[in-house]
Specification:
The protein has 394 residues and is of the alpha/beta class. It has helices at 22-33, 66-86, 106-119, 130-136, 158-169, 212-217, 287-293, 309-313, 354-369, and strands at 15-18, 38-41, 58-59, 97-101, 126-129, 146-150, 154-155, 173-174, 179-185, 188-194, 197-200, 203-206, 226-235, 247-250, 255-260, 263-268, 320-328, 335-338, 344-348. 25% of the residues lie in helices and 24% in strands. The strands form 4 sheets. The chain has an 8-stranded mixed sheet, sandwiched between helices. A 6-stranded mixed sheet has the order 8-2-1-12-19-18. The radius of gyration is 21 Å and the shape is globular. The protein binds flavin-adenine dinucleotide. Flavin-adenine dinucleotide (FAD) is lined by residues 18-24, 41-44, 50-52, 54-58, 178-179, 207-211, 215, 230-232, 324, 326, 348, 350, 352-356.
Length: 394
């Protein structure tokens, strides 16, 4: 991996990107393609170490709306060609997403969604009866009535993706460099102030993940963002997990798992988790293990995949929990585009989809910055009217 790390930031740049997670790296990737002279500033000692490595790394086209499906399909095209085009293995595994329902009411809901997806041209989503699901994936529980499955969905290594994009971009970055203020004068960006000196510039992108609101506040802006903790339970070694299985999701509870390492990652997106201030590090709640693994828990992963009971009965299996934060917007779509301050741009608020969303959305942002697409056609504009919608948390 050929990363260009500098000890100090330069005195000036065309464009400063604040934050070197997957979103900052995707911004650098497209900015470099557009020929911009960029610098990436990262507060932590290493890039892509806050939220990005916490992600499950899932990507999918099975969405409930056409816009997100089309945007993410642009990202997926980049993922699938990344190794052959750029020579970086980002750990792609196209093992599918399997959404299982155990509820009679879930059957017509899934049917309607799959019909809609077929209508958008996503014709490779399969609708399987419970028995068809078990014929294909014998470890699926008897209570599963129906499932929807798309083989082309899958997962990747989010940190490898971020570092790969950063490396390909050849964009220099400074670690241990915290932006304390975006300097604004007469409504225009003039630069950024950091613990390692000032950088003069007329364009700044805020890609600071959960801290994007904090950074924007230094320029006097209040963003429609809030942060919510999300956790990942890791079994690094669970021999009973079939390593060729898809991402498996309980439609009713949102509990899900996917094979990883020599075991699996397991998650539950708890709708009752309250918003909490942006944090680094994010505190862990070890109760997640019981909620996910105890067969008697209402959100137990054993509902859909009974073999996880072994992790409950076999106390010798080692596990760990890590936590990050989703950076949410009122309509669960990111904020991509300009602010009221000339030269200050946003690339944040991915609401749990930053790995799969950021390559495409960062291309959209750089097109806007370079005047390659009109500002008024941008559906992700930060000043759009927010229409609240049900969260798609996986
Ligand atoms: C448990 C979990 C599972 C997830 N699963 C998926 C998934 O399967 N698929 C998917 O697409 N997404 C998933 N996500 C969401 C995804 O991880 C995020 O959307 C994405 O990582 C956000 O990237 P980012 O670059 O914005 O944030 P980060 O990775 O947090 O990067 C922001 C960077 O900005 C830096 N920074 C902050 N303030 C400053 C400052 N003042 N100066 C300089 N630097 C600063 C931070 O140190 C940090 O490195 C998941 C998230 C979690 C928590």
């Amino acid at each position: 991996m050929d990363l260009r790390e500098l000890d100090e930031p330069p005195r000036s740049a065309d464009l400063v990107i604040i934050g070197a997670g997957v979103v900052g790296a995707a911004t650098a990737f497209h900015a470099a393609r557009a020929g911009l002279d960029c610098i990436l500033l990262e507060r932590r000692p290493l890039p892509a170490t806050l939220t990005t490595p916490r992600a499950t790394g899932g990507f999918r086209l099975q969405f409930d709306n056409r816009e997100e499906m089309e945007l993410v399909s642009e990202s997926v095209e980049l993922f699938l060609g990344f190794n052959s085009t750029h020579g970086h293995d980002i750990g792609i595994r196209q093992q599918g997403y399997l959404w299982c329902t155990m509820d009679e009411a879930g059957i017509p809901r899934q049917q309607g969604l799959v019909e809609m997806q077929h209508g958008w041209g996503l014709t490779d989503v399969e609708l399987l009866t419970g028995d068809e699901t078990r014929a294909r994936f014998p470890w699926v529980g008897e209570r599963v009535l129906q499932a929807r499955f798309r083989q082309g969905d899958g997962f990747l290594d989010p940190r490898a993706l971020a570092l790969g994009m950063l490396s390909v971009s050849r964009t220099p970055f400074v670690a241990g460099c915290e932006v304390s203020e975006v300097v604004v004068d007469s409504g225009c960006v003039r630069g950024v102030r950091t613990n390692k000196g000032e950088v003069a510039c007329e364009q700044v992108v805020i890609a600071a993940g959960p801290f994007s609101g904090t950074v924007a506040a230094t320029a006097g802006l209040e963003l429609p963002l809030y942060t919510v903790r999300r956790q990942k339970l890791i079994f690094a070694n669970a021999p009973f997990v079939p390593q060729d299985s898809p991402m498996v999701i309980d439609e009713e509870t949102g509990a899900h798992w996917r094979p990883a390492l020599d075991g699996a990652f397991l998650l539950h997106t708890d709708a009752d988790e309250p918003a909490s201030p942006a944090a680094d590090p994010v505190p862990v709640d070890h109760g997640l293990h019981r909620r996910l693994i105890d067969p008697d828990s209402p959100v137990s992963i054993c509902r859909v995949t009974p073999f996880w009971e072994r992790a409950w009965t076999d106390g010798s299996l080692e596990w760990d929990i890590v936590a990050g934060q989703y950076t949410m917007t009122p309509d669960h779509r990111p904020l991509i585009g300009p602010t009221d301050i000339e030269g200050l741009w946003l690339n944040c608020g991915y609401s749990g989809h930053g790995v799969m969303g950021s390559p495409a959305c960062s291309r959209v942002l750089i097109d806007l910055i370079c005047g390659q697409s009109p500002l008024d056609g941008n559906q992700l504009a930060p000043d759009r009217e927010f229409i609240e919608r049900e969260i798609s948390s996986i």
